[in-house]
């Protein structure tokens, strides 16, 4: 059973096509594991077992007739509960949507179904995809499968926890600040943040259904899985132009150069000033560089000239212009936003709070929004994108931390996160290394590369050039073969949960 639920999606698809296992058998294995372990994790927030089993039976019958629905024929998958799923509850963890059942699928969901995948469940997100922990108004908080006292991250925390714990082989998450990458790092799995506007986000919440679409930069959809091969397979299915979002360009997928590790130029960084990284993460990054060097890779330690502090502040300005007006005004939303900003202003190292500048930017923009300021911020973003393009041009990929911290214990939003004895503002602790690439729109693959002394996973960002995801995934696969470290969570709670 464990071998089946931890088999990569692309291999499950081949096994189903070869009829060495049935789609019903695969689905039942996952449903049994969800029943056994999800009560401790809360990674799954809505199960669609009856319809999924009907569809799995149809998949097996179709194969018996010689029909093939597509590359994921009969493979069960999960979807972050920020994406609309036709006929299946979609809430984004937001009370006003507690009974919302969409009539149509989000584009990424429709494309997976068209490839033969079966949606068996929705995964538990942060409320309105807006937090680095996965808590919301409707469902119990998501727990990290490596230690239930720790967060799996957010906002795709349910997605990453489900993949790590073997509750699903493949999930679709979303990322506007690190919401695919930080949970992948915290849970020890693989994630891909594509180039900005490479994948349609039509049908993603926010915005709340019925409201004007305001978030038009930096938000991306991407896969979370247990292998690079599954990232590539899923990405190839969901990428591409979409009539529902005309700004997604018809840019064809790139072709990999098929360079070996001995013929690529890799840059690596274990820490960027002024964002101190946990020693366990620095040690893991140094170990990666050492292993790749021993494998014959040209790898050089590198600090870019990119102005991370200014980029952070322009990102926050753009976010402040778009995020509040994409939600209906309600007290809970305003309270949550104020709690986060006040936490950044009052908790954590004073010097780091000053750098963060979240409250000043948030309040000033909210109190005095104007089109001139918005377009000035977008113009600044264009300059930062061009600078990042230029700095990455000599390299095939850049390796850097995902966050300043590994997974941390559950805490109220806005609480300072302690990293090696230093208290770091909440947003900065998780977002300092993810936000720059959300801001510039560059693609990033996250792979697991180690663990802390306490046994928590450590991931690493592999950053590539825009519109070159296939090349980046090919390089990531070669790196993963040398330094990858995916493991199944092995904890006391796993052994004790519903013993059979």
From TrEMBL:
An example Gene Ontology cellular component term from the record? endomembrane system
The Amidase domain is annotated at 25-473
Query: What name is this protein filed under?
Result: Amidase
């Amino acid at each position: 059973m464990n071998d089946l639920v931890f088999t990569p999606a692309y291999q499950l698809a081949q096994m189903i096509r070869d009829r060495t296992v049935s789609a019903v058998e695969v689905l039942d294995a996952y449903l049994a594991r969800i029943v056994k372990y999800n009560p401790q994790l809360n990674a799954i927030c809505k199960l669609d077992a009856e319809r999924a089993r009907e569809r799995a039976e149809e998949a097996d019958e179709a194969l018996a007739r010689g029909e093939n629905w597509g590359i994921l024929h009969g493979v069960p998958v999960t979807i972050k509960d920020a994406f609309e799923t036709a006929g299946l509850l979609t809430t984004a963890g937001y009370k006003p949507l507690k009974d919302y059942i969409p009539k149509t699928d989000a584009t990424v969901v429709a494309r997976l179904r068209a490839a033969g995948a079966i949606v068996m469940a929705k995964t538990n997100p942060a409320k309105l995809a807006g937090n680095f922990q996965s808590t919301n108004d409707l469902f119990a908080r998501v727990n990290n499968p490596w230690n239930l006292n720790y967060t799996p991250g957010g906002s795709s925390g349910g997605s990453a926890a489900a993949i790590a714990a073997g509750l699903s082989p493949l999930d679709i998450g979303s990322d506007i600040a690190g919401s695919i990458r930080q949970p992948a790092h915290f849970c020890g799995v693989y994630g891909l943040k594509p180039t900005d506007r490479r994948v349609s986000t039509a049908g993603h919440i926010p915005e709340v259904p019925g409201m004007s679409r305001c978030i038009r930069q930096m938000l991306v959809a991407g896969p979370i899985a247990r292998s690079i091969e599954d990232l590539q397979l899923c990405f190839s299915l969901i990428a591409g132009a979409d009539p529902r979002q005309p700004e997604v360009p018809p840019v064809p997928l790139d072709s990999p150069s098929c360079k070996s590790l001995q013929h690529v130029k890799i840059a690596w960084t274990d820490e960027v000033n002024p964002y101190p990284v946990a020693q366990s993460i620095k040690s893991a990054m140094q170990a990666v560089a050492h292993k790749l060097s021993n494998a014959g890779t040209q790898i050089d330690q590198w600090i870019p000239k990119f102005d991370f502090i200014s980029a952070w502040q322009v990102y926050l300005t753009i976010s402040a212009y778009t995020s509040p007006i994409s939600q209906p005004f309600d007290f809970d939303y305003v309270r949550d936003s104020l709690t986060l900003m006040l936490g950044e202003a009052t908790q954590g190292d004073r010097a780091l709070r000053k750098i963060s500048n979240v409250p000043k930017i948030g309040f000033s923009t909210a109190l005095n929004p104007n089109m001139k300021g918005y377009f000035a911020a977008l113009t600044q973003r264009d300059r930062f994108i061009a600078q990042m393009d230029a700095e990455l041009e000599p390299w095939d990929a850049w390796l850097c931390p995902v966050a300043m911290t590994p997974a941390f214990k559950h805490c109220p939003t806005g609480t300072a996160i302690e990293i090696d004895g230093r208290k770091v503002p909440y947003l900065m602790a998780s977002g300092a290394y993810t936000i720059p690439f959300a801001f510039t729109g560059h693609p990033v693959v996250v792979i697991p590369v180690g663990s802390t002394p306490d046994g928590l996973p450590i991931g690493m960002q592999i950053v590539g050039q825009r519109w070159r995801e296939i090349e980046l995934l090919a390089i990531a696969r070669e790196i993963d073969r040398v330094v990858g470290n995916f493991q199944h969570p092995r904890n006391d709670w796993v052994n004790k949960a519903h013993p059979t």
